[in-house]
Amino acid sequence: MGYLVKFSVFILLSVQFGPTMAHQSQKSFRIYQLEDGCPEAKTIKLPIHLKNVNISLKNGTYYLAFNVAIYQNMPQDVKIEFQLVRCRDRGTLNSCENFHKITIPFFCKLMNIDGPWIGYVRSLEPPLRCPLKKGLYRLPNALTIDANEIGRLRLGDGNVFRINVKIFTQQSNKMVFCCTAEGQTINV
């Protein structure tokens, strides 16, 4: 699942906002959180969880490390939904709006294609394979995100962005995982 964060940033930010702007002032991106769970799953016992999340920043690069615990085998393919939410500020929930959504059906088929996420899939210990099997998957070598590169994208100044990642079984559309990441473009 470690590749999900990088992939969601790649898909939702790079594709949605296009190339960087030459006249833009120096900006960076601050990651506030990466947490297991979401409001829709408060009363549901999900079979996949994010554990031991560690976020550190060094020289403009964020390092994310975590474990993914899968508590039951997933015999069917899954689909992943990335929902990008834009908020004017961090403290006011009513300042938020759904900004962009991408659904990736048949994730297992995509996961085996050689793409920008393949390095993260292979770096999980043990390697993540489909169908997803019960077990603990570790991303010991931290996922890296260049805060300055993301800061160069054409994002609204000061807006807080939340990425909600949800995984559903393909056939029954049952939610099996959700997590939330939150960050903000800032002036440096």
Structure report:
The chain is an alpha+beta fold. It has one domain (2-187): Ganglioside M2 Activator Protein, Chain: A. It is 17% helix and 45% strand. It has four helices and eight strands; from the N terminus they run αβββββααβαββ. It has helices spanning 2-17, 107-111, 118-123, 147-151, and strands at 27-36, 48-58, 61-70, 78-87, 96-104, 135-146, 160-169, 175-187. The protein has a five-stranded antiparallel beta sheet. Strand 4 (78-87) and strand 5 (96-104) form a beta hairpin. The radius of gyration is 16 Å and the shape is globular. The model is unreliable at 2-23 (pLDDT under 50).
Shape descriptor: globular
First-residue to last-residue Cα separation = 31 Å
* Count of spatially separate domains: 1
Q: Give me the side-by-side strand order of the main sheet.
A: 1-8-7-4-5
CATH 2nd-level architecture:
Distorted Sandwich
CATH topology: Ganglioside M2 Activator Protein, Chain: A
